[in-house]
């Protein structure tokens, strides 16, 4: 077909002569974005022609709607071709030359009464096309409209000047031809282009072909009805997203269309005892176009422990689509996702508590992190967060554990004291001593537990947490009972001096009258100082308390039979043995000290 004979030259209508350097250097931080923008525009044009056909405004044959991307290394060109709506010469002048206009927005406005939603069109920014100039020294558009109009060719070399002429083009649609600049020839590599297409377009709703291969799945499972999907569908999709990860524990299918549009799938992975906020992220899409995996503005920090996909056209982006803008919709979406996650956990707990308990070891860190971070999530999950005691005791909710300890662990002021361990193996002697007194000891050994404990102390009335090795049991749960000492003050002073000479200056020695069934020597750490230290480690940030050396108190039980033997015989060897046992219980005995302790123990057998 012969081209129409018209020829026009002019200047692009922009507000600054420097628009192209701005686009190239500042508007888009990552140059590979050009391919996402241009393919997205092709998807827009294709969706539009399909929509016009569905409402009877276009009656011709749709034919093959596949978008094709090709590269010619010799000619140094990249071409993006579609069989969508196409453009007339007048439309090219309007939409391409006048940057202030957006064809997508005008299309929506024109056909909104026929049910076309703004979100149905990916391209919302007239600047999207101009991303081509990040990598091209000149750009051609060859387009033929679905309307009865001749084909047109537009050419621009990156300056503000353009030329429009007639063109030869049989098919409806548009070819965008990029003449790649010398400093961007990396994009002429087929492998590089394919990797970009797969990154941003692997779930585009229109087939995209590159070098004879369709690179995308047009109907990902988050666009489908959950009732039409099996567990295997969800697991298979997860494997596509995270091919080297363990299977997820369970998932949530998000689907809401009011007051905003949001679809997606969030998976609960097995969460290790560390905050993996950056290893495998939630992916954000807009109408199946990948936008980013930096979703901190869309979901709360604690939800970033989850994996999966969120797709919403209602999350506002800046013109480069590369950064999120915090607005009312984002806050609503944030709250909705938080609520849905909480609802799912409550549902699992109520439907099958045994199965929920089996999973809690893997999701407990996430639940606690959420309770600390978000008040609404705390309210939603406070009845289903589980506590685990040392030993074989079953999990308990907060209310169940309160009932369990109410009779035994009230202090003299009717405050409930919950004992806990951060290392059940290392602190076993303290745990056994507590258990022998009828007390229960919680295991709180995750990285988030120092903060979780603080949160519960704020929320639970007249309840405090004390680590089982923070003091003697009589001091940890002070019931107001005075234990009489069988030693005189002079005898206690003598014992104190003896143990100070054995222990050295690193420990503060205190001789106290304790129950005879408590340990003979107890090594303790101040609860406040130790907790501040733990919290600074959990937060990954140094603090005043985190930088201070830990101090230990050596409590000598004046009423224990072994201590009476030390006192009666002035037995420094036995005193040393008891001190070393206390140090060993805290993991503070090593090297030569541990070797000497073993030798003495063996010699005494």
From TrEMBL:
InterPro entries for this protein: HATPase_C_sf (IPR036890), Heat_shock_protein_90_CS (IPR019805), HSP90_C (IPR037196), Hsp90_fam (IPR001404), Hsp90_N (IPR020575), Ribosomal_Su5_D2-typ_SF (IPR020568)
Keyword ATP-binding applies: yes
Keywords: ATP-binding, Chaperone, Cytoplasm, Nucleotide-binding, Stress response
Molecular function per GO: ATP binding; ATP hydrolysis activity; ATP-dependent protein folding chaperone; unfolded protein binding
UniProt keyword Chaperone, yes or no: yes
Positions with a binding annotation for ATP: 37, 41, 82, 102-103, 124-129, 174, 321
NCBIfam families the UniProt entry points to: PRK05218.1
The family this protein is said to belong to: Belongs to the heat shock protein 90 family.
Name of the protein described by the UniProt record: Chaperone protein HtpG
Organism: Siphonobacter aquaeclarae
Native organism taxonomy: Bacteria, Pseudomonadati, Bacteroidota, Cytophagia, Cytophagales
């Amino acid at each position: 077909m012969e081209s129409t004979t018209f020829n026009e030259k002019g200047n692009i209508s922009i507000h600054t002569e420097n628009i192209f350097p701005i686009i190239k250097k500042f508007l888009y931080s990552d140059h590979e974005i050009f391919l996402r923008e241009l393919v997205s525009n092709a998807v827009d044009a294709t969706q539009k022609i399909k929509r016009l056909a569905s409402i009877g405004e276009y009656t011709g044959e749709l034919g093959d709607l596949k978008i094709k991307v090709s590269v010619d290394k010799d000619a140094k060109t990249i071409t993006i071709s579609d069989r969508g709506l196409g453009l007339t010469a007048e439309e090219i002048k309007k939409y391409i030359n006048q940057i202030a206009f957006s064809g997508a927005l005008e299309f929506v406005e024109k056909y909104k009464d026929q049910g076309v939603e703004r979100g149905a069109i990916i391209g919302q920014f007239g600047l999207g096309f101009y991303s081509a100039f990040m990598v091209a020294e000149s750009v051609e558009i060859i387009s033929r409209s679905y309307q009865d109009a001749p084909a047109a060719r537009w050419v621009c070399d990156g300056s503000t000047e353009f030329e429009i002429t007639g063109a030869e083009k049989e098919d409806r649609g548009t070819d965008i031809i990029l003449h790649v600049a010398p400093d961007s020839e990396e994009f002429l590599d087929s492998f590089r282009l394919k990797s970009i297409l797969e990154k941003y377009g692997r779930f585009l709703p229109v087939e995209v072909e590159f070098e004879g291969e369709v690179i995308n799945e047009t109907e990902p499972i988050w666009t489908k009805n959950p009732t039409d999907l099996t567990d295997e569908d969800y697991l298979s999709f997860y494997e596509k997203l995270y091919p080297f990860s363990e299977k997820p524990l369970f998932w949530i299918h998000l689907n809401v269309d009011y007051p905003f549009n949001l679809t997606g799938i969030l998976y609960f992975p097995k969460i290790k005892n560390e905050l993996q906020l950056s290893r495998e992220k939630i992916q954000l899409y807009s109408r199946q176009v990948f936008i980013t995996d930096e979703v901190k503005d869309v979901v709360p920090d604690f939800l970033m422990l989850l994996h999966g996909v969120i797709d919403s056209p209602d999350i506002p982006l800046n013109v480069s689509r590369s950064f999120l803008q915090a607005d009312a919709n984002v806050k609503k979406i944030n709250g909705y996702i938080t609520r849905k996650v909480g609802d799912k956990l409550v549902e699992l707990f109520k439907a099958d508590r045994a199965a929920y308990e089996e999973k809690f070891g893997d999701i407990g860190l996430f639940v606690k992190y959420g309770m600390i971070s978000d008040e609404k999530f705390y309210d939603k999950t406070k009845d289903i967060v589980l506590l685990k005691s040392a030993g074989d005791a079953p999990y308990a909710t907060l209310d169940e554990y309160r009932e369990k300890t109410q009779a035994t662990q009230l202090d003299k002021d009717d405050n409930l004291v919950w004992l806990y361990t951060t290392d059940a193996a290392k602190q076993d002697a303290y745990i056994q001593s507590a258990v022998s007194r009828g007390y229960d000891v919680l295991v709180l050994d995750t990285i988030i537990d120092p903060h979780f404990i603080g949160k519960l102390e704020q929320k639970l009335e007249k309840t405090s947490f004390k680590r089982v090795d923070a003091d003697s049991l009589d001091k940890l749960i002070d019931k107001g009972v005075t234990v009489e000492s069988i030693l005189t003050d002079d005898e206690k002073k003598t014992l104190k001096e003896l143990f100070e000479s054995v222990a050295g200056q690193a420990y503060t020695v205190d001789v106290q009258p304790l129950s005879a069934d408590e340990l003979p020597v107890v090594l303790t750490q101040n609860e406040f100082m130790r907790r501040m230290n733990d919290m600074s480690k959990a937060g990954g940030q140094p603090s005043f308390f985190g930088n201070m050396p830990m101090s230990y108190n050596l409590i000598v039980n004046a009423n224990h039979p072994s201590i009476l033997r030390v006192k009666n015989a002035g037995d420094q060897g036995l005193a040393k043995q008891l001190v070393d046992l206390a140090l060993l219980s805290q993991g503070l005995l090593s090297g030569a000290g541990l070797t000497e302790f073993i030798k003495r123990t063996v010699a005494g057998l």
